[in-house]
Design goal:
139 residues, alpha+beta, 22% strand
Length: 139
């Protein structure tokens, strides 16, 4: 994970995001992405587009894809990576969230944004993901 952090910090030292992967210094940097110093326009440049890293474009015809997600719409997603202890201490996740294993102590905050049909409207969905939850929560 340290290699990934080095790559992200080198590619984008200001916001610490690159191609939809973010490793912010703290949990508040991107929590309110429209507040300074991070703006929505910044996240459009730094986030990933729908289908950018998946085979969705190969499997679906352009006409079958939701227009809010395709084309030049400014819909994006990004994934913030946090070490569990840092995430709890900084408020990125609740203290009662699932604990990850000690071998993979990372949690991920995933944010997706889609532009609405009306000008200036959008939907923001945010979720926390623990890929390897500890079976024994005392780990």
């Amino acid at each position: 994970m340290d290699d990934l952090e080095t790559i992200v910090a080198t590619k984008s030292p200001t916001h610490r995001c690159w191609e939809g992967i973010c490793m912010p210094v703290n949990s508040t940097d991107l929590a309110i992405f429209e507040a300074n110093p991070v703006t929505y326009a910044d996240m459009i440049k730094l986030g990933a587009k729908y289908g950018q890293f998946t085979r969705s474009k190969l499997l679906a015809k352009e006409a079958d894809v939701n227009p809010a997600l395709s084309g030049d719409k400014k819909s994006r997603y990004w994934i913030e990576v946090f070490r569990y202890g840092e995430a709890v201490n900084s408020g990125a996740v609740a203290a009662n969230a699932a604990l990850p294993t000690m071998e993979a102590p990372y949690i991920y905050r995933i944010t997706a944004i889609a532009q609405g049909r009306k000008e200036g409207t959008r939907v923001v969905i945010r979720s926390i993901f623990v890929p390897y939850p500890a079976l024994n929560q005392n780990q």
